[in-house]
Input
Amino acid sequence: MLEPQALIFELDDIKVSLFEYKYPLLKQPDKVGKLYLASDEDIACMKMSAIAQRGLKKDF
Output
């Protein structure tokens, strides 16, 4: 499924969501295998941004 600024799909029954994040990262991404993942601090900031921009209550 392609949404504005997001790509959502399932891989081996695991939901994967990729989103655009417009802000600079606080730390360098961690390399896990062949993937680069945002740091825990950056993910926390992304979650706070999502909560602040959403009008509905949701379990994050």
Notes: Residues 22-60 form one domain. The mean pLDDT is 83.
